[in-house]
Design brief:
Structural class of chain A: mainly alpha
Number of helices of chain A: 15
Largest sheet of chain A: none
Number of strands of chain A: 0
Radius of gyration of chain B: 19 Å
Low-confidence stretches of chain B: none
Low-confidence stretches of chain A: 389-396
Oligomer: heterodimer
Order of helices and strands of chain B: EEEEEHEHHEEEH
Largest interface: A-B, 33 and 27 residues
Shape of chain B: elongated
Distance between the termini of chain B: 40 Å
Distance between the termini of chain A: 72 Å
Shape of chain A: globular
Strand content of chain B: 25-35%
Number of helices of chain B: 4
Strand content of chain A: under 5%
Largest sheet of chain B: 5 strands, antiparallel
Number of strands of chain B: 9
């Protein structure tokens, strides 16, 4: 058997296996992300069935997965939505950062991973999974609820924070000085501001560059532009993902909608590879030692997200049940926590256990998030029924 | 009526208003044009009792059902001083699907005037004879009882 045929067989087996896992996840109403990670753990180093020879392809495909994840995140929100989201939710957004970054940073410091490890883990526990959350809200029929805009605007805020966080993280991982780090912050904030202004004022020109009535041409142009921007951003140490994210924001209107429709299957494919690659690079044997800490993080950051959502919803005059729903909706972590951990691991600037902790944490939270969103309402109703005097029922 | 328009970033727009009883009713319009009808719960005004996905046809039919009686009531009120003149909404049957208002020859055959045609919740007032009808349109008509009865029969059977 030639090398190519072996590689094709391995790759085919991986994709087919992921398909089966994805179907299983759909059946039990779960996000497929944790199952992809488990798939990666099984096939990776120290796993049950190590695969060889396809690393070159899978690692590049995983990178493309990250680029597409961020590009579609940028496409999802128009610049106008980002600006209104920022204006409406910045107080809640700041609380979100403080409450949810702290547990990750604290655990990293306790484990002796230093300030860089703390910065990475802070990002991992901070960022909610907008993909999982949007799906859960739709599935549970909560899009028309009054607390839903609160949840969505917090997600918008988190995404803007990501655009600042990722370049800083890249700078920190490369090992620049404090001044260099501050410069990175300045450049990132400046570029973000410029992109928002360009997208608000001249978004149609950016869209016109990539737009085409022909599907094939359009696909190639959008994908090409995303990889070019990501590549140049990466060469300038600004993080490939952020370049793609900013391009996504700059593309607007119907072009953005068409691009989303066309790129979604590609994103799903490459992002699946990314999760598998992340799992592949994590040694399953390294998970049990960090399991306790992962559980501690899961419990504490579930509570902190609940508190964030509760507080943000209360500010908008939402009742106790709605506040509980808003909090629970925000619990899920997923793709972006892995993106952050993946970035850290690729620079080898952090402790190897960090990848294991991040994997375990996301495994727990991607499962726990949707479950929390589902059970919070019956649970809150029961609690309210137990003490009806403290929370009198409002208007009928 | 104070309709509240709330953007849902990444999803679409929610438009709703409070009913007299305090419950909210409205629609969530997705970016791709999908429409969902939303009605708030009675015991929890923040939550929704139902989120019903509606196709464009279904939304239009519902809008007709809600809108046409209003128009008829208004016209009836205006014609109250004229005894023997009635207003009625009449559905257009399949025989006239794709044909013009002129093809029905309602005015010649029954003496009934077509004041407006309601389609997908939109009022097309004072339609001309070359106005093309679609099955499911609601005609708002004015005439005598007898004339209106005849018009109903004609529009149903052709």
């Amino acid at each position: 058997m030639t090398d190519t045929s072996l590689e094709l067989i391995e790759l085919g087996a991986v994709f087919f296996g992921l398909g089966l896992l994805g179907r299983f996840a759909g059946r039990i109403g779960l996000s497929p992300i944790p199952l992809y990670l488990i798939g990666g753990l099984v096939f990776g180093e120290g796993g049950l069935l190590p695969l060889g020879g396809i690393e070159k392809f899978t690692s590049l495909a995983g990178e493309i997965g990250v680029v597409l994840l961020l590009l579609l995140l940028g496409l999802e929100y128009s610049a106008a939505e980002l600006v209104t989201g920022l204006r409406r939710s910045w107080v809640a957004g700041l609380l979100d950062i403080v409450l949810n970054a702290a547990p990750g940073a604290a655990v990293a410091l306790i484990l002796g991973w230093g300030p860089i490890g703390a910065f990475v883990m802070a990002g991992v526990t901070y960022i909610s999974s907008s993909g999982i959350i949007a799906k859960v809200l739709g599935d549970l029929g909560r899009l028309g609820n009054r607390e839903t805009p609160v949840v969505l605007s917090i997600l918008v805020f988190e995404d803007l924070v990501m655009a600042l966080y990722l370049p800083i993280l890249t700078a920190v991982l490369v090992g620049v000085s404090l001044v260099g780090g501050l410069t990175a912050v300045g450049i990132a904030a400046g570029v973000l501001a410029v992109v928002l202004v360009v997208a608000l004022r001249y978004g149609r020109f950016v869209s016109a560059i990539v737009d085409s009535p022909d599907r094939e041409v359009f696909l190639l142009k959008v994908l090409g532009a995303a990889l070019l921007v990501a590549g140049f951003a990466s060469a300038m140490q600004v993080s490939a993902a952020v370049g793609a994210f900013l391009l996504g924001i700059a593309i607007s209107g119907s072009t953005a909608e068409n691009a989303t429709k066309m790129l979604e299957p590609l994103r799903d494919l490459f992002a699946a590879v990314f999760f598998v690659v992340f799992g592949l690079n994590t040694d399953p044997a390294s998970i049990p030692p960090v399991l306790g800490w992962a559980v501690v993080l899961a419990v504490s950051t579930t509570l902190t997200k609940l508190a964030t959502g509760w507080w943000a919803a209360r500010r908008q005059g939402i009742g106790p049940l709605g506040r509980a729903r808003a909090g629970a909706a925000l619990v899920a972590r997923g793709e972006f926590s892995i993106v952050i951990a993946g970035l850290a691991v690729s620079y080898a600037a952090v402790d190897g256990e960090l990848a294991a902790l991040a994997t375990t944490y996301v495994l727990l939270m991607a499962v726990l998030g949707p479950v929390a969103a589902r059970v919070v309402e019956p649970l809150a109703r029961k609690l309210r029924a137990d003490r009806p005097l403290t929370n009198p029922t409002t208007a009928h | 009526m104070n309709v509240e328009v709330t953007p849902l970033p990444g999803i679409g727009v929610r438009k709703d208003f409070a009913l007299r009883g305090g419950r909210r009713i409205g629609v969530v319009t997705h970016r791709d044009g999908k429409i969902e009808l939303i009605i708030s719960k009675s015991d929890d005004p923040d939550a929704c009792l139902a989120e019903l996905p509606l196709s464009a046809d279904e939304a239009g039919a519902l809008a007709n059902l809600l809108g046409a009686p209003q128009l008829v009531a208004q016209l009836t009120e205006e014609h109250r001083d004229l005894p023997g003149i009635h207003t009625r909404q009449i559905p257009v049957g399949p025989p006239f699907d794709g044909r013009t208002l002129g093809d029905t020859a309602l005015r010649t055959r029954t003496g009934v005037s077509v004041v407006a045609v309601m389609r997908a919740g939109q009022v097309h007032s004072s339609p001309t004879p070359d106005f093309t009808l679609t099955a499911g349109d609601l005609m708002v008509t004015v005439g005598t009882s007898e004339g209106l009865d005849n018009a109903v029969r004609i529009l149903k059977r052709g």
